[in-house]
Amino acid sequence: MKHLATALAVLLAGSIINLSHAGPAPERLDRAAIRAQFDRFLAAWNQEDLETATAIFTKDAVVYDPAPPGVFLGREAIHEWTRKSFQDLERIRIEVSGVRVRIEGETAWITAHYSFSATRDGLSLAEEGNLSMIWIRMENGAYLSPLFHASRVPAGAGG
108: which strand partners? Predict the structure, then answer.
């Protein structure tokens, strides 16, 4: 009988602990927060909001962009690249499809297909490709990106 009482106490304690953790799974909350941060990044580009577009990167982030020179090391270089893009391009529009978010511990990956359009000196520019971003959770709980990579889809290859 003593063992039965102990077993019941352990089961009851386990049930109480499980109930105290009831609610949305942490991954769902993280996934939504990461996707919201990604959406803010895209909106910032579409609105040419320099500070928001660059604030999502870690200080030592790396950006790989299809346009030369193509590699930007550190938030300051990313800020300058973004500033120059906003200065040189008009009517920037980035749309994404097929967005996937994967979470593993404190790291997340986003992959998507993108369509980019803008005008430069009155000429229309357009390209499509694939992008990926890594996101990490900082000590304050915010998500920042240490890596952004975009690659054009070769002409005639489709999405």
Answer: 103, 135
**Mean pLDDT of the 57-83 span:** 95
> Can you say how many angstroms the Cα of residue 84 is from the centroid of all Cα atoms in its chain?
22
**Strand-pair partners of 146:** none
- 123 contact partners, CB below 8 Å, separation of at least 6: none
Q: Which residues make beta-bridge pairs with 134?
A: 109, 147
Q: Which token pair is 93?
A: 């529009």
- Cβ-proximal residues to 62 (8 Å cutoff; 6+ apart), any chain: 71, 72, 73, 146, 147, 148
Query: Can you read off the two tokens belonging to residue 5?
Result: 């009482």
Task: State how far the Cα of 67 lies from the Cα of 62, in Å rounded to an integer.
Answer: 15
- In the numeric block, the tokens 């990604």 are attached to 38
Q: Which amino acid is at 7?
A: A
Q: CB under 8 Å to 89, separation ≥6 — which residues?
A: 118, 119, 120, 125
Q: What domains lie within the chain, and their CATH numbers?
A: 25-152 (3.10.450.50)
What DSSP character marks residue 84?
Answer: H
Per-residue pLDDT, 36: 93
Distance CA 121, CA 48 (A): 17
- Specify the DSSP element, H or E, that contains 129: strand 123-137
Task: Report the predicted TM-score, pTM, of the whole model to 2 decimal places.
Answer: 0.77
